[in-house]
Amino acid sequence: MQLQSIIRAIYPAQCVACDAQTESDYGLCGACWAQTQFIGGLVCDTCGTPLPGEDRGETVQCDDCMTIARPWDQGRAVLVYAGVGRRLVLGLKHGDRTEFAQSAARWMAQKLSLMRITDPVIAPVPLHWTRLTRRRYNQSALLAQALGAHAGCRVCVDALVRCKPTKSLDGHSRDARFAALADAIISNPKRVNQIKGQPVLLVDDVMTSGATLAASVEAARAAGAANVSIVTLARVVKDA
């Protein structure tokens, strides 16, 4: 206990968004917590985007999910991808803030507890090996592993494979995003036995158009997944 106190005195816990001191590891300071747009209340049952109105326990969808055929069964997201939420995602994705996966997983586990899925196999959206080499880690895999530990679920980090590299899709139209992901993600033939006949929960850091998630879900379904749901750390929201 004394050693832990000494370590804490030398390396105090810091906010994962701004580095201010916090009471516990992997948390947010009061100011950043107040500025973070956590998603709650009435949400789209398919993608998790927040919706106006009260949550009366009914299943509702946003306009996009009523227009676009989504290949998954249910979806949830933790944060609006704006402000502090965007900073957190980018820190995890590009800033080596891998410790944030622990906090994110706790929040995602809360969303999982509200979903209609029991004992799923958790799998991350994959990165192409060239991008993985440059980045050194797959942030979605870190989230999947941490979520599995928090929720007590099985995790298969290489259930899916991105077999075709794609350029950054930032700023691309929805149609361009879907076209770029066509045939880019497949199931890993060495892991089919782990997802065949099983409920699968796909994990990603952020959902924009849903093109990457759709390609991943289709690959999981092609491998025989019984049903597929998604959970993301953040969701791009119109006018956020």
| Percent of sequence in beta strands | 15-25%
The low-pLDDT segments are: none
Percentage of residues assigned to helices = 25-40%
Indicate the CATH class of the largest domain: Alpha Beta
H/I helix tally: 10
Order of helices and strands: HHHEHHEHHEEHEHEHE
Written overview of the protein:
- It contains 10 helices and 7 strands.
- It has helices at 2-10, 30-35, 63-67, 83-94, 100-112, 129-135, 139-151, 174-180, 192-195, 211-222; strands at residues 75-80, 121-124, 154-155, 160-162, 185-187, 199-207, 227-235.
- The chain is an alpha/beta fold and 240 residues long.
- It has 2 domains: 1-33, no CATH class; 36-235, Rossmann fold (3-Layer(aba) Sandwich).
- Helix 5 packs across helix 7.
What are the salient characteristics of this protein?
2 domains; 240 residues; globular; 5-stranded parallel β-sheet; 10 helices; two-stranded antiparallel sheet; Rossmann fold; 15% strand; single chain; alpha/beta
Question: Nutshell version of this structure?
Answer:
With 240 residues, the chain is an alpha/beta fold. The protein is built from 10 helices and 7 strands.
SSE layout:
Elements: H1 2-10, H2 30-35, H3 63-67, E1 75-80, H4 83-94, H5 100-112, E2 121-124, H6 129-135, H7 139-151, E3 154-155, E4 160-162, H8 174-180, E5 185-187, H9 192-195, E6 199-207, H10 211-222, E7 227-235
Parallel strand pairs: 1-7, 2-3, 2-6, 6-7
Antiparallel strand pairs: 4-5
